[in-house]
Specification:
about 725 residues; mainly beta; Immunoglobulin-like; 7 domains; five-stranded mixed sheet; immunoglobulin domain; glycoprotein; membrane; Ig-like_dom_sf
Length: about 725
């Protein structure tokens, strides 16, 4: 059997989902209510007032399905309204009350502004916004008189008052009066007219140079009762004084001046500066353009167009001239061997400001160069360009020979030749080396040897036929992969010599003090065997030391005596002497011994006292006693000088007092030290003897001598620098 078909339909009565609410309105206000319902089929709507259906009988009342709107409400619109939504399955109702009320004029919540400030020539709007329903009539009074409208004075539809091109006569009290059938009310405010603010400084373009300072003026005339506020802008950005690195400073000291100073101007300070002046009644501004002239900016696009062994052709593009025409360009070069950037020689010699090419000359071959360009104008020289890419000059045969060719020394049968290597930047190409040429004095042909290392600085020729200390002519040349270069000048060098073969004789030694001894010997004669003597070498060691730990002291030339210093006191030393030359030292002499004297006294003089009278200073001190291991005191040295930096004078005495004939109008510094055969002992502390008044005060000086002595004794124990 065939199944039967069927259709299922759903239906629903209306259900309100949005209802109108009770509302209270003023006369002349507007009302809009909306009513929404669901249902199937879709509901239809109708509106009722006080139980009767409503129709759009008046233009101000519109009924459109679910929306009811009423404009310009009146008291008669007050009532109970119903929204009815229905379909064939039923109807639903919603009730809402509308109350329309009247209000007498009222300014309690919106008074006319108490005071309005306006400048002469300005415009002013005084608003009047009373609360009243229905809206009534607005009128204005100035003082007690009705205000009449003119070409400058107008009462707007809103009730507000506008006055154009205000004059001083417009100042005063203004009252807004509002009326409707339910009452009248008023509100009063004042208009105060002020003189306008005028910037008296004229707009200008200022022209300054980097590093200078400039004042940007902003002078105004204004109503003295108004406070001014100055604000500055740089390229429309607010200037915060105290920031910007301290370049900007307010300097307008007067109330009517807002001048600012820009110190140590830099290129970045060029631009537009605006001074804005504001009061309670107006605001105005003035702008000045600041042109900053400075050294040129760095050139760009430095390019090496062509390069040879000694020249490089360059090109570049100009940088900014910074408002001062470029007058010249300077080219600098740098290599791995130079100390920073160096000036170079160019063609043309002077590169003008409009020229953007030049050739650098006198370069070294086979060297990597970088170049940079600097531009100059009347202000100065600007920052350098970025360096060019490294470019290497072409190679060529070398031109520079080694410096300081010399030699000599070495071992038996050797000719030692030395020189200073040619710097890498002067080798002119790869494969650099040296050619060493030499010949004995009197010979015509040269012997040659190649030294292929560019760092080499020495060549040794060894041959058993070479006689000791024989003269040779020597010259050193250069070469590289491009070919041979020149030889340097010929110089004379001696072959190696033999060390002296004989020992000095008649060696004697004598102790001079605890730390010094003098040694004598007989000089060796010069002989035909070419064994030169350049001087003598002394070796000395104490009894407690081994000979191989001996100290060494050398003399130069034919000297036959010397003093050994720095020895220890009361010590026996052994001394030997031998001759020396470049080959070494000869055999030693017979060893002699010497015993140094006892050390000098270690105790300084104490209880130093002084007395000054006339032009004499009398010094006394306590005798110094030598210790058992010290040399006896044989006398004293008195050292005196006028100030700390002068050289001291010395007086010797074998007593414990001395009289110095010194002017008493000078300050003196004095020290005393003992001496004996072991040398000078320890010094007393410094004694400062102050300047004493002249002859008229001799008596008083004598009277206070004891006090002076006591004072000086105290001073003598104050640490001072030794004389």
């Amino acid at each position: 059997a065939k199944p039967r078909g069927g259709k299922l339909s759903f239906y629903a009565p209306p259900h309100l989902i949005e209802k109108p609410q009770d509302v209270q309105k003023l006369i002349d206000d507007s009302l809009v209510w909306e009513c929404k319902a669901t249902g199937k089929p879709k509901p239809s709507y109708r509106w009722m007032k006080n139980g009767e259906n409503m129709e759009s009988t008046e233009e101000r009342i519109q009924v459109a399905n679910e929306v009811l709107s009423i404009s310009r409400l009146t008291l008669s619109d007050t009532g109970m309204y119903q929204c009815v939504a229905g379909n064939k399955h039923g109807e639903v109702y919603s009730n809402a009350e509308l109350r329309v009320i009247a209000v007498a004029p009222d300014f309690s919540h919106n008074q006319v502004r108490g005071q309005t400030l306006v400048k002469v020539g300005g415009d002013v709007l005084i608003e009047c916004k009373p609360k009243m329903s229905p809206w009534g009539v607005i009128s204005w009074r100035k003082g007690s008189e009705p205000l009449l409208e003119t070409s400058r004075v107008s009462i707007l539809e809103s009730g507000s008052l506008r006055i154009w091109n205000v004059t001083k006569a417009d100042a005063g009290l203004y009252t807004c009066v509002a009326r409707n059938q339910f009452g009248v009310a008023s509100s009063t405010g004042s208009v105060t007219v002020k003189e306008p603010t005028i910037i008296t400084t004229q707009p200008a373009t200022l022209d300054v140079t980097v590093g200078e300072s400039v004042v940007l003026p902003c002078q105004v005339s204004h109503d003295p009762s108004l406070e001014l506020k100055f604000t500055w802008f740089f390229n429309e950005q607010l200037i915060h004084f105290g920031n910007h690195g301290g370049f900007f400073e307010k300097v307008g000291g007067q109330h009517s001046a807002g001048d600012i100073m820009i110190r140590n101007i830099q290129l970045r300070h060029a631009g537009k500066y605006t001074c804005a002046v504001q009061t309670k009644v107006d605001s105005i501004s003035i702008a000045a353009d600041l042109v900053v002239r400075g050294p040129p900016g760095p050139p760009t696009s430095i390019h090496v167009e062509e390069i040879t062994d000694t020249t490089a052709s360059l090109s570049w593009r100009p940088g900014s001239d910074n408002h001062s025409p470029i007058m010249a360009h300077t080219i600098q070069a740098r290599t791995p061997f130079s100390l920073g950037w160096q000036a170079v020689t160019t063609v043309p010699e002077v590169v003008g400001g409009q020229q953007l090419t030049a050739t650098v000359i006198d370069l070294n071959p086979w060297v990597e160069y970088e170049f940079r360009v600097l531009a100059s104008n009347r202000v100065g020289t600007g920052e350098p360009s970025e360096p060019s890419k490294q470019a290497r000059t072409k190679s060529t045969s070398p031109k520079v020979t080694p410096a300081n060719v010399s030699g000599g020394g070495g071992s038996r049968s050797e000719l030692v030749i030395t020189w200073e290597p040619v710097p890498e930047e002067l080798q002119n190409g790869p494969g650099f080396g040296y050619v060493v040429a030499f010949r004995p004095h009197g010979a015509t042909g040269w012997m040659q040897a190649a030294v292929p290392s560019p760092e080499a600085s020495k060549y040794v020729f060894k041959n058993e036929s070479i006689q000791p200390f024989s003269p040779f002519h020597v010259k050193v040349g250069v070469y590289n992969n491009e070919g041979e270069g020149p030889f340097g000048p010929v110089t004379t060098i001696y072959s190696a010599e033999e060390e002296p073969s004989r020992a000095p004789t008649r060696v004697r030694a004598k102790s001079l003090s605890a730390s010094e001894a003098e040694v004598w010997w007989k000089a060796l004669p010069w002989n035909a065997s070419r064994r030169r003597v350049l001087g003598y070498e002394l070796r000395y060691w104490s009894r407690s030391e081994r000979e191989d730990m001996a100290s060494v002291q050398r003399t130069v030339g034919n000297q036959t005596s010397t003093v050994i210093r720095g020895m220890r006191g009361s010590t026996t030393y052994y001394v030997s002497v031998r001759a020396y030359n470049t080959a070494g030292t000869g055999p030693p002499s017979t060893t002699v011994n010497v015993t140094t004297k006892k050390p000098p006294p270690s105790q300084p003089p104490i209880k130093v006292m002084w007395n000054a009278s006339n032009s004499k200073i009398i010094l006394n001190w306590e005798r110094v006693k030598a210790l058992e291991n010290e040399s006896e005191v044989t006398g004293y040295k008195v050292l005196y000088k006028k100030n700390r930096h002068s050289r001291p004078s010395v007086m010797e005495t074998n007593t414990t007092s001395v009289e110095l004939a010194l002017p008493v109008d000078e300050d003196y510094i004095i020290q005393i030290k003992p001496f004996g055969e072991g040398g000078d002992g320890s010094s007393s502390r410094q004694i400062t003897i102050p300047k004493i008044p002249g002859p008229n005060a001799v008596g008083s000086a004598s009277k206070v001598s004891t006090l002076s002595a006591l004072s000086t004794i105290a001073l003598s124990f104050t640490a001072r620098t030794s004389l």
